[in-house]
Every structure is written in C-alpha cells, then in structure tokens.
Amino acid sequence: MSQNTRRILVFSTNYLPYIGGAELALKEIMERLSGIQFDVITSRLDKSLSEKETFQNINLYRVGSSWFLKNIFLPKNFYPLSAFAKAIGLARKNKYSAMLALQASQGAGAAWLFKFLHPKMPFILNIQEGKNLGQQGFLINFFRKLILKKADIITVISSYLRDYVSKINSKAKLFVIPNGVNLEKFKNLEHKTNNQDKTIITVSRLVEKNGVEDLIDAFHILNTKYNIQNTRLMIIGDGPLKEALKIKILNLKLESKVTLLGSIANEDLPKYLTQADVFARPSLSEGLGTAFLEAMAAGLPVVGTARGGIVDFLKDKETGLVCEAENPDDLAQKLSLILSNSNLYESIVKNARKLIEEKYDWNIITKQYEEIINSYTRI
C-alpha cells in the first residue's frame, strides 16, 4: 500500500456473512472508496469463518471465540475487549488516519476504549439506529451517550437521528448522510404484465416496530370494506413475530392471499419488487427506511408513516402516501387510494424515482463520505 494512502480502522460488531442494512451500507461505502484501505474488526460468530480475509481494499479481522460468543449470556458484550486488543496490535503495525465505528453498540465500545490510547486519532461514528431511542433501557442509553460524547465526527442517516445526537454531543462535527441505493440493480427492470392482480409488498424484519401486524389488519380491511379486486400481500423478511403472523393470517382467513416469503438474498430483491404494485410499511419507528428507497427506485409507490427518518423522503401525495401509525383503517384507505387512482400513482412513481436519483444514489453519498475523510483526517 502506498504511503500516500489513508488507512482507517473500522469497528463493526457484525460483518460478512452476518449483515443487515447498516452493515450492507458500510460495505457499499468502503468498496466504493477504493483509494482508502480499511481494516475491519468484527466478531467471529462461527468457527468455520477465517480469522482474516481480504476483499479488495478491505482487510477483515474476526475476533473472539465463536463458542464463547454464542453460548455465554450477553453474547456480543464481550466483543469490545477482544476487538480493543486486536486494535492495539494492528496499530503497532500500521499508521491509521482515523477510526470508524458502525453504530453506538459493542463495536463502538471497542472504539471508545481505543480512543483513550489514541486521543489525537479522529473518531468517526456512524449512527443508523432505527428503534425508538427514547423508549430504550437506562443502560443502553447510558452507554450510547458515553460513546456519542467521545466521537469527533458523527454521521447520521436522517434528520431524526441528527436531532437526537445534537442534544448529546454539540461539539462533534455532525453530518446527515443517508444510506443509498445501488441504482445499477434497478436498471431496465421488467414489471409484471398481469394487471388484474393488485399486489402489495413489504420488506421488513418481523418485529413490532415495523408494524407488519397493522399491515395485515389493513389488508383485511382493504378486502372487506373497499372494492379492490384480486388483492395479494407479499411479506419478505423474518423475525420473532413470524409464528404470530401466521396465526393472524389464518384467523383472518387470508392464507390464500397473504404469502410469508421469509428472508431473500439482497440481489434477488428487484425481481420481487417488480411483481408488486405498491410497497407499504407502517413503521412505529425508523432510522431511515432503506427498504422504502429501494421500492421507490424499483418504480413502486410507497405508503408509510411520518415516523423517524421516513419524513426526510416521504412527502404526502408527492413522493408517496403518508398513513397514521397504529391505524390499520387509515392505512387501508391510503392503499385503496393509490391502487384506484392511476394519475396519482404515476405522479408519485415519477417524483420518487427523481428523488432517488438526485439524493440517494450510492455514488453521490460516497462522495460525501470521501469529502469528510479528506477534510478531517491526515495520511
């Protein structure tokens, strides 16, 4: 590696192959910043995984015993110490321009410790939390605030998170940079040709905050109250509510209309989106809502709540439809509206796609990260 290349030490509790939306975003950013070397320290959750792997400009280091992490209570809470020890070893061999932590969680805990040894090294913290931050427990909030106060540069994915962070650390350089969409995945898509069926789709982890139960209730109302024929609901995702949702679907006699598809590979998402007419997710809280952005990129109108980061991109009757949270009747009414009004449908699809291309393209977002790194770190 050239001596003129920046090298950044990254702390991420999870990474390949155990990745969610935040880790996918980190991967997109690092791979696109090919002129920077990234050394990523993550937890080794499976003994079959190598302790070190290299992907282009990314060195991946897995630390901790997989048995220890999986079988002892509070599994990942021991990761900060092993990651901290690994970081000390790497810092003896390499000169780092900055440290970067994904989320104010266990990985950032290791960065917090490392910052005490290297107080002059810029600490960049990326915040993507989607839960209702005000309703989390005392200990979680206590440790999150400790980490936030230690960071020099904080990037958040929505104005909702900006407002939260600014109350805790007013001294840090704070930037709102959303997650993005890989527009190459959504080029030249062939949409469904069967215009008789009206298909609603959601992509969501099956947890309470994503409002999937409300969506099923709204779908039931759509079928019983509104004159929308041949409706279907596709639910993509997995999670602890799966069995409860199966029971709800049976109780409402919707088993012939609602399909629980489980988790799918991220690269397969576009082909599922093109089989649908509208995307809906009545979230109770949301850090940003990348699933909405991907649906918009695929040419679907979206229906969502004005919660968390969703308000940054969802403008009622302009880039989508806004429904009330925890109100299946209102959601059903909005679904009926978008499925029966072709002019509104086409207008929303056009406006949403334009917004994605102008603001949420990963190439645009990566340049914003590159500017921050170049401005606040040294080679």
Write up this protein.
This protein is an alpha/beta fold. It folds into 2 domains: 7-180 and 361-376, Glycogen Phosphorylase B (Rossmann fold, 3-Layer(aba) Sandwich), CATH 3.40.50; 184-359, Glycogen Phosphorylase B (Rossmann fold). The protein contains 13 helices and 14 strands. It has helices spanning 21-32, 66-71, 79-93, 106-117, 138-150, 159-166, 212-225, 242-251, 269-273, 290-297, 328-340, 342-359, 362-376, and strands spanning 7-11, 37-43, 52-55, 58-63, 98-102, 123-127, 153-156, 173-176, 198-203, 231-236, 258-262, 278-281, 302-305, 321-323. The radius of gyration is 22 Å and the shape is elongated. Mean pLDDT is 92; it is low at 68-75. InterPro entries: Glyco_trans_1, Glyco_trans_4-like_N, Glycosyltransferase_grp1. GO terms for molecular function: glycosyltransferase activity. This is Glycosyl transferase family 1 domain-containing protein.
